[in-house]
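Section 5: illustrative case.
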C-alpha cells in the first residue's frame, strides 16, 4: 500500500518510531536508485528544499524542482491534473502547499499511485517536527527518542503549522508541552494536525503568559509572527505578539540548562532576539542539520523500510 507522510497525526506510533530510527541509521544509496522525486513548492523555501534535494540524492535518486509559477495549482491546471501528470513520471511527490486539502485531492485523483510528503501546508509541517524531535533527543537523551518522557517543552508566540506538528509529535513521546500565545493566536481544536485531540502520554497546557509558561522549561521554541501568506497582517501581528518575544529575559525564566529552538527563517527583533538566537542555548543549526536526517527517514519509510 502506498505510504503518505502529510501529518504526524495520521501516523501510528510504530510508524513514527520507524521514521526516527531510519533517519539516523546507516543507509545505502539504493533506496531510490535511479528514481525521481518531484519537489513542488507553492511557497518559498531554503531549508526544506535543500534538505529534500540532498536526501533524495544521498538515497540514490534525483530530485526535480517545480515552482508555483511553473505549475500553478488550480490556476494553470487543476490540482488533480497536476497529480495525475506527476504520477506518470514519479512514484513520490513532496509538496509545500498553501492549502492542506491538496493532498487529499491528489490522493483521490491518482488512486493512491503517488506517495505524498508534506513539505509544509497551512495545517502542518511534519518533516520539521521529525527534525525537531531528533534535535531534542540529541540534547536530552543521547539520540534516543523514547527517552523524552517528562521533558518540558514550551512554545511561545503564534501557534502555527510548526507548533501543531511539533506538539503532536512531542505529546506522542510523553513530552509535556505548553503553548503560550495571546488571544486569537493560540492553538485551536480541529484541523488535520490537532494537538488538542492527541491522546499521547504527554500533557498539553495552553497559556497566555509567556513568562509563566517558560518557567522550568527544558526547551523554548518559537516561530515567525508572520507566517507565509499572512504578510498583510504584519503590523497587527507585531502589536498583538509584542509580549511574546523570546529574549534573554524570557530565557532566564527557563531552566539554566534549557535550549532554544526555532524552525527558521528567523525574524530577528520580532519573535526572537539576536542575543538568544546566536547565544549558547541556541540549537537552531542542529535543527537545520536534522532536516536532512528527517527527510532521509521519511523517504526510507515511504519506500517501505521499517
Ligand atoms: N524551516 C523551514 O521549513 O525552512 P524553509 O521555509 O526555508 O524551508
Ligand atoms: N510558520 C511558518 C513556518 C516557516 C518554515 C510559515 O508557515 O511561514
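Designed sequence:
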Amino acid at each position: 500500500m502506498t505510504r503518505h507522510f502529510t501529518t504526524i497525526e495520521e501516523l501510528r506510533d510504530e510508524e513514527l518510531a520507524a521514521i526516527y530510527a531510519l533517519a539516523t541509521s546507516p543507509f545505502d544509496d539504493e533506496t531510490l536508485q535511479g528514481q525521481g522525486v518531484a519537489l513542488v513548492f507553492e511557497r518559498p523555501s531554503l531549508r526544506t528544499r535543500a534538505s529534500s534535494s540532498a536526501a533524495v540524492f544521498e538515497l540514490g535518486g534525483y530530485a526535480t524542482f517545480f515552482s508555483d509559477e511553473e505549475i500553478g495549482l488550480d490556476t494553470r491546471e487543476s490540482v488533480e491534473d497536476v497529480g495525475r501528470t506527476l504520477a506518470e513520471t514519479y512514484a513520490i511527490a513532496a509538496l509545500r502547499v498553501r492549502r492542506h486539502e491538496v493532498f487529499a485531492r491528489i490522493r483521490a485523483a491518482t488512486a493512491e499511485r503517488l506517495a505524498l510528503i508534506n513539505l509544509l501546508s497551512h495545517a502542518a509541517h511534519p518533516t520539521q517536527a521529525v527534525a525537531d524531535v531528533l534535535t531534542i533527543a540529541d540534547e536530552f537523551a543521547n539520540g534516543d527518542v523514547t527517552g523524552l518522557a517528562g521533558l518540558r517543552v514550551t512554545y511561545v508566540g503564534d501557534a502555527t503549522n510548526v507548533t501543531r506538528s511539533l506538539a503532536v509529535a512531542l505529546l506522542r513521546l510523553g513530552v509535556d508541552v505548553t503553548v503560550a500565545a495571546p488571544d486569537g493566536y493560540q492553538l485551536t481544536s480541529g484541523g488535520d494536525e490537532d494537538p488538542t485531540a492527541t491522546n499521547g502520554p504527554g500533557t498539553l497546557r495552553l497559556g497566555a503568559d509567556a513568562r509563566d509558561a517558560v518557567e522550568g522549561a527544558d526547551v523554548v521554541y518559537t516561530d515567525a509572527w508572520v507566517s507565509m501568506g499572512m504578510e498583510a497582517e504584519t503590523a497587527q501581528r507585531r502589536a498583538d505578539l509584542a509580549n511574546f518575544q523570546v529574549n534573554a529575559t524570557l530565557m532566564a525564566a527557563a531552566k539554566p540548562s534549557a535550549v532554544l529552538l526555532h524552525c527558521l527563517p528567523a525574524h530577528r527583533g520580532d519573535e526572537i532576539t539576536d542575543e538568544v538566537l546566536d547565544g549558547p542555548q541556541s540549537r537552531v543549526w542542529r535543527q537545520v542539520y536534522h532536516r536532512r536526517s528527517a527527510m532521509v527517514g521519511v523517504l526510507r519509510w515511504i519506500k517501505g523500510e521499517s
